[in-house]
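Quick look at the format.
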Amino acid sequence: MFKKYLIVFLVSMVPLIELRGAVPIGLSQAFGDPLPLLPLYITCIIGNMLPVPFIFFFARKVLEWGADKKFIGKFFTFCLEKGEKGGKKLQETAGRGLYVALFLFVGIPLPGTGAWTGTLAASFLDMDFKKSVIAVMSGVILAGIIMGLASFGVFGAVGAMFS
């Protein structure tokens, strides 16, 4: 059981996969029995949020440093462009409700959204750290709820009722 908790914790920390991939793994029988829901969510949220302060304070500096390096330059430039694009898109659509937009950006589980991209965008926009962390954490919790419901087939059952 500890092995499965460790797997979901580590998967939650991986960019692009994050909690969105870890919750279905924890609820599946892939590595043993499904994990209890509350401990699974807590493990995934902690794993997903652990990199957030490092991303906010250091990622942009590291990416800017590595953008012109021979072997890592293309990837670092891609990450910089993704962060800038995400930040601009967030700012354009949100206006004064920037933190609500950050919450929704992180919380709605679509490809390319999540704690990593949202935090990087907040860093590029020089948003307040505490407010950004609250918005990102709230979004991670929302994404976890949505992924849990999707894993249990709730959306399919509701869709079947109305079709």
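Next, a different chain entirely:
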Amino acid sequence: MEIAATRPLAGTIPASAPRIWTGRIITAVSVLFLLLDAGNHLMKTPPVVEAFVRLGVPVGLAGPIGALEIACLVVYLVPRTALLGAILLTGYLGGAVAIQLRAGSPLFAETLFPVYFGALVWVGLLLRRPRLWAVLTAPRRD
């Protein structure tokens, strides 16, 4: 089956090899950290138990939260569903920010930490997918 040539979208950034590899590396770093985090939740390591107690979250939720994180990561890592995965991870990390805010955690050290990784998830995706960047930044046609 032959794929017809399509006209590039306005604002499309050329897909250079260094750009794509940078996106892959950023994605790998963020995914590895999030996998480590999910594994710690599933194993209920002492730092996770301590954090859950400090944040007022039942420790019994650590396993389901870790499983949810892994499910979001799987969706993110499948190329056809990567955009949906980035959206799901954004929601997951947003919940982490909300819990940290409610607990009164330090802003830059703990509360915004999930935001940093959410940014890495999106930067990695946008660097790997130049057409996605073009779609997200296309002018509105009202």
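The chain has a mean pLDDT of 89.

See the schema section for token definitions.
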